[in-house]
């Protein structure tokens, strides 16, 4: 088995974080711009709150374990989410404290299946960072990403086959003139008495396109203790069990087997596909 990565060079690393690929750490330390942008995105695009209980001891409060895991990964690789205010996000990047002006948060919901933040760095450059379901992100990428899309899709399928929960990450550099107009429209939509949600959704659609792919993340979805045994007992009692999932089909099947929801002797496992109200095909 590969040796566990030693993060002791990073005083702000979380000692509980376990990782085994040294090459990724070397790539980041060498200053690879794509690798650094990848972790910068993870340090900026989230809803995590940070608190310093004792001096230098950083704790994260996350709405979901997945989000906590991704922000902690960025932290250990040298992109430490440090603090936030309604107007700023502060990250310690390879030891240097950088404060980003937070221009907008484009919230995640079950229809959008993605979240974005728009930030301005200290040099004045504006960037949109987006993370979300691979199918959704892939529809919104710039054509120049086609080669990376193929490579990344191979990785995503491999991760899903291992039962991991996956996300795709993308960014977009923004022009000053475009952003001035967009922020005006954003203010109008945010304060509208009617059609607020529709107006914001349209604005989000306008800006979350022609993005550049950075890569993908995969997180192990650990079952709570006793889940497989409980489901097995319920099935023996002839109780019908339904699980609704937003995961990729491969991930859903893999988790289905690991929690004893699906068993090898089951002959006919089939996928039910449905069209949602807006015509988007969803697999159930």
UniProtKB/TrEMBL annotation:
Gene3D superfamilies according to UniProt: Calcium-transporting ATPase, cytoplasmic domain N, HAD superfamily/HAD-like
PANTHER family: PHOSPHOLIPID-TRANSPORTING ATPASE (PTHR24092:SF177), PROBABLE PHOSPHOLIPID-TRANSPORTING ATPASE (PTHR24092)
Name the UniProt record assigns to this protein: Phospholipid-transporting ATPase ID
Organism: Ataeniobius toweri
